[in-house]
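DM from R.C. (forwarded with permission)

"hey, sorry to bug you on a friday — could you get me a structure for this? deadline for the figure draft is monday and I only need the backbone to look sensible"
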Amino acid sequence: MFLKGLFLLFFSFLPLQSEEGIDPDLNGAESIAERSINPAQIPYLIQKNDLKKALDLYRSYYEQQKRHDFEILEQLGTILLEKGALETAPEIQLLSLYGSLYASLSSKLSVVEAALKSPHLPTQLAALHLIGRLHDDRCSTLLHLAMTSDFLYTRMEAAYQLALRKNPGAVGQIESLMFRVPPALRSYFPSFFALIGTPDATKILKGLLEASDEQVRIEAILSTASHGREELLPLIRSMATHPGPLVQEATAFALGELKDSHSLSKLRRLSLSSFVPIRIAACRSLYLLGEKEVQGVIEELAQKENLFAIQLLGEMEGSNAVLVSLLDSRNLHVRFNSALSLLKKRDPRAAPQLKELLIRDTRDFGFYPIYTPGRALMAWKILPSLDQQQQNIPYDLKGMTLAFREKILRDALELPETEFLMLAEALFTSRQTELIPLLVRLLENLESKEASLLLKRQQRAAGAPLIRSYCNLSLFRLKEKGPYEEGVRSWVERNKGKELIRFREITPKRMKGSDSPYELTPEERSRLFIETLEALAQSDNARSIDLFLNLIEKGNPQNR
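My reply, with the result:
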């Protein structure tokens, strides 16, 4: 519905100033209401930055026609998004991009192009995230533009997008970039060529498998396996006897991923290695190839509190008893990794430890991934005093921690409903405001009477205005009977004068654990504001349009 476009029009609107003498025909003594209105004048006034006259003229036109003109409103949205993208202020450019995520407007690509030309890195990365959401052949031209950016981070993300789309010119451009970056960064490139998978990309990937840099070789092995490039299997198979333990670990892992039954004898030999990561990787591959008896080796290592073995048990059948026994460990990392593996199996016995993971208390836990030396296996570790530690860490550990907690919460939805509702109640009670936006969405997805009752109880919770507002919004979206729509509208009215739309900082790709880390993710209160407007837009009634027009004219200019 175009109402959604109008919602975007609202928060991408710029703080426009009126110009004098725009059009002699609009400044005469005759009142707007007394003459026939030419609707083409409305977008003209917006182009000329005369907000008040444009909105007054539209309202009068609406009174004459007795209906809203969605074509005119769409023109307004298009103009405003384009103007926002051309602004020098990065905050306004970001808002225009955020609006473009939702709007089905023909201007979307021009907005992205303007953002890619911005001198600000976050704006360029946000534009690339938007490109990743578009299915338009013209995006290739924009990605080639991004490859000329002054920021290496932008060029690397553009290279990923080109590889993902298997763009005809991707191989040459990515290879050229690979030879221009510092050698320490070349280990990022094997995944690009493995993702493309064309003969010329595979030829380069083969060369990287034989590179002198061990880290490049390891990443080439793992990328070949994760993307199923079986044509390179003979070369990887030969690396099983490589003298380096890190290459052996990666190879042992890859042979299982590629389902290479011809390498069983090599994997059995590697499973006896004195280097524990090689042993675990080889046992995992043997398990995938049908030799289930190796599970005993993994269980033994898990009982010795090896975190990588504990994580691997989450993929193996019949390991629940071992994992449950590890929940009583005095080692915090062991308990939490065991709970995560039980969560993979949807075992409700993980719930008490999950609650401890999800609730941020005085210990202020942060979470980060650790890898084996050959990077084939991963587990999680906990860092106390996150706020204090963040000052000495070069990446956004707080953002990564939040992304990790959100993933746990999503996965917890697969637990029995009673267990999930107990977790939800605990999150509400402990005021975990960072998780509330996601939590109410998950409760909506349950579509159960018990979930609705929980939302209604929290909608009346004392001393928690953000929680009350989110629950009220959720009940409005669920179309529950009650004063929820009026509650949503009154919240917007109360907050229209505040600066509400702000964005979180960017989290590095490898740290966030997401395919698209450059999302425009509003802070909690900003997110509530935007979700509220979106819900009103989807309600599809004239009152919502009137509210948006009023907010554009009289609300805080930073929210437009």
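R.C.: lifesaver. Residues 70-86 form the longest helix (17 residues).
me: no worries. Residues 347 and 415 are 7 Å apart (CA to CA).
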